[in-house]
Amino acid sequence: MGLPIFAKQMALRAGAIFIVKILGFAARIPLFRLLGAEGIGLYQMAYSFYGLALTVISGGFPTALALATAQDHRKGWQLYKSATLLLASVGGMLAWLCYHLAPSIARWLGHSSLEAAIRCLAPALFLVPLLFLLRSFLQGLEFYGAIAWSEIMEQIVRLSVMLLLVTLWIRTDLGQAVGGAVFGAAAGALIAYLFLLAFLFFRRQSFRSAETRASISAWSDSGLRLFLYSALSISAARLIVPISDFMDAIIIPSRLQHAGMTASEAASVFGQIAGVAATIVYMPTLVTSALAFTLAAKVTADWKNKDVLRFSRRARSAIQIGILWGIGSSWVLWHYSTDLTLLVFSDDAAAVPVRYMFIAPLLSGLQELTMVILWASGNQKAPLFGLAAGILCSAGLNFGLLGIPGFAYAGAAMGLLSLDLVSMLWNLVAISRQKRTILSGSLPIRRALLLLLLCLAGTPGAEWLVNLLPLPQPLCTILSIAVLFGLFSLFIMQTYKKSS
């Protein structure tokens, strides 16, 4: 699998995502305490609209551009320039509409207090798609260091602006404070975009060398049609998740009110589920996201070069790592659900939904990895159909279960998890039909059982050792979790070396 360079790139990517996630976690603690559960619920509603609008604008162009650039640097540069003009035009128009139609959009979301937040999101709808596009171009060139630094820089600026504005505006109005929270997205995107533009300018010589090494054949009409087809297919798949989040933001509070809650109580419960529990349970997916990010360009190049053996070996190892990491992470979430919610938010109200959603890292990680594998092999339809089936299942469960009094947390968890579960299973079936060798041995039952034994034996052992130290209980819990993740990582690294 090209262990040294691949492992180095994955470590760089994982490190950047880890820093970004840790910063996000650290900022979410004061944000939760400033806004409260209701404010976090409003924040999640605003971001569900933002995610949908952002995906409509950028669609699958960034992912398709990264894959095209990985195949041919010169063609990627041509496509980047054209796509930038397109997204700048579309993003600017939709940002203008978003700002002027904010009152209507807020009423449509069911909370008039979201008007300020919708207006504050408008600049991000113009800036963030351009940032995504530039990062994807650099991803195709494998400039992972610059991408990592831009992500860290974006997160620092975003969170700093967010907390500053929330602190200043919370005295005025809750809706205004939520607007300040979401405005950080535009500020962070602007700084990161300027940084990457400067990087591209100063590295233009190395880029020209890469361009010279790349194919100099003309961009044919068939190649352009293939790029547009890939972008539109990926756009359709990318739209599914934001649509699902947007539907959750509408269906969940509405059905909770139908079950007898007030609007404020429903927003609070939605905040606990989508803003607190989901933040915790999806944190471990930073590793599988890093793996998928570094895997994409490499398996695409393997498929293009018709190196089927290498493609299968890389894809198979990635799925194995995703399974093992997901099992270990899910165990930690199950065992430490109450401790994690108390550590992060000083409130154990979200411990129940965290325990209901403990298996999210396994399902979500495999869903993302299998989707990347299918995209790299030119199969964009299967992930799209799988996500469509998943969102229908999720919406149906949310609508049917959340109307039952007392079924709020369990019903929401089943609805949210069903999206990843159905999509993952659909992708695995498509992969088995397309290339059976990828899944041969991809279900490491023996290694999974060994990892479970490590969880069962390692958890009390780690807790016993840490409790010998004269430290406060919260710090002991943090160290115990760190020791467990260290054991999981060592076990997976050893497995990876043996399978590579």
Automatic annotation (TrEMBL):
InterPro entries: PG_synth_SpoVB, Poly_Biosynth_Transport, Polysacc_synth
Protein topology in the membrane: Multi-pass membrane protein
Domain of life: Bacteria
TM spans (from-to): 12-35, 47-70, 82-102, 114-134, 178-202, 223-241, 273-297, 318-336, 356-375, 382-401, 407-428, 448-466, 472-493
Keywords of this entry: Cell membrane, Membrane, Transmembrane, Transmembrane helix
Keyword Transcription regulation part of the UniProt annotation: no
Pfam families: Polysacc_synt
Main location: membrane
Keyword Cell cycle (UniProt): no
Subcellular location: Cell membrane
This protein's name: Oligosaccharide flippase family protein
Organism: Paenibacillus residui
